[in-house]
Design a protein that fits this description.
This is LysR family transcriptional regulator. The chain is 44% helix and 23% strand. With 291 residues, it is an alpha/beta fold. The protein folds into three domains: 76 residues, Winged helix-like DNA-binding domain superfamily/Winged helix DNA-binding domain (Arc Repressor Mutant, subunit A), CATH 1.10.10.10; 98 residues, Periplasmic binding protein-like II (D-Maltodextrin-Binding Protein, domain 2, 3-Layer(aba) Sandwich), CATH 3.40.190; 101 residues, 3-Layer(aba) Sandwich (D-Maltodextrin-Binding Protein, domain 2). Helix 6 crosses helix 11.
């Protein structure tokens, strides 16, 4: 499965062999041996990059089904024999790594010392792709997800705030303005935003769309904390979730309407494929994240 999958993604024997640290002749002969045993050609070698033939697509679909069945079998066997041990690959984005992990992970590893943790950081799209490719087991994420086929367990919901620092032109007049008046006055103003591969960016864009605001995005970042700090010192606008609200001196945080809450979840590919370690972590996180 790995050799076929890598060749599809890389599109050439040279790139795929480099990716897997094997020689190109060995790689080519391995694929050829499968084709010979099946009596079909799996890859169209005249195309650059290489693509699957019709027979190859059929073979690959069955291969994925077999791989999925094997994964289900191993998960069931592991769950029966190892209730409180195992290996857990957890994905998270930088913001949730900073504001959520410390509330869960130390206590979880103390309760389940035999469960080994591998922590993988990335953006929302990257983490979702890793879930779908079975490269991570679960990941902290925020709704809405990019891929609607991914399942999740909701952990908590928090308010979203517009950051207005004392450097901002609206700061002194806020007490005399309604929310709608404030939002209508920030059209075309300078904004600091998360990069577009993050789920929170989608939520922030939904707020802007609701108020018919076209922001002048001057800086994009991967970190909510960076956006927050830059807004405090530059006078630009930005949005942050409630867990990122810190010092309230020389800054005002304007709460957004309830329909724009930040919903934090633990996402996973398929609940039927969850290992006992994953289930333990989800249940533990639900009860300990704000304790």
């Amino acid at each position: 499965m790995l050799f076929i999958d890598t060749l599809i993604k890389e599109g050439s024997f040279s790139k795929a062999s480099n990716k897997l640290y094997v020689s190109q002749p060995y790689y080519s002969n391995y694929i050829k041996s499968i084709e010979t045993s099946l009596g079909v050609t799996l890859f169209n070698r005249k195309k650059k990059p290489l693509i699957l033939t019709t027979e190859g697509e059929i073979y690959y679909e069955y291969l994925k089904d077999i791989d999925l069945m094997y994964l289900k079998m191993t998960q069931k066997l592991t769950n029966i024999s190892n209730y409180d041990s195992g290996f857990l690959r957890i994905g998270t984005n930088p913001t949730l790594a900073s504001h959520v992990l410390h509330k869960v992970l130390p206590a979880f590893t103390q309760k389940y010392p035999k469960i080994k943790i591998d922590l993988i950081e990335g953006d929302t799209k990257d983490l979702e792709n890793k879930l779908l490719d079975n490269k991570i087991d679960i990941c902290f994420n925020t709704l809405p997800l990019w891929n609607s086929s991914i399942d999740y367990a909701e952990l908590y919901a928090e308010n979203i705030y517009l950051v207005i620092s004392s450097q901002n032109i609206l700061y002194k007049d806020l007490d005399n303005l309604t929310l709608d008046q404030i939002m209508s006055s920030i059209n075309h103003q300078k904004f600091i935003m998360l990069k577009d591969r993050y789920g929170l960016r989608k939520l922030f864009c939904n707020i802007l769309k609701y108020y018919e605001i076209s922001p002048n995005v001057t800086i994009e970042t991967v970190s909510i904390d960076t956006a927050h700090k830059l807004a405090l010192y530059s006078g630009s606008f930005t949005f942050i979730p409630e867990t990122s609200v810190t010092d309230k001196s020389n800054v005002k945080y304007l709460k957004m309407p309830e329909q724009f809450k930040n919903r934090v979840v633990l996402a996973f590919k398929n609940k039927d494929l969850l290992s006992k370690a994953s289930t333990n972590f989800i249940d533990f996180s639900k009860t300990h994240i704000f304790n």
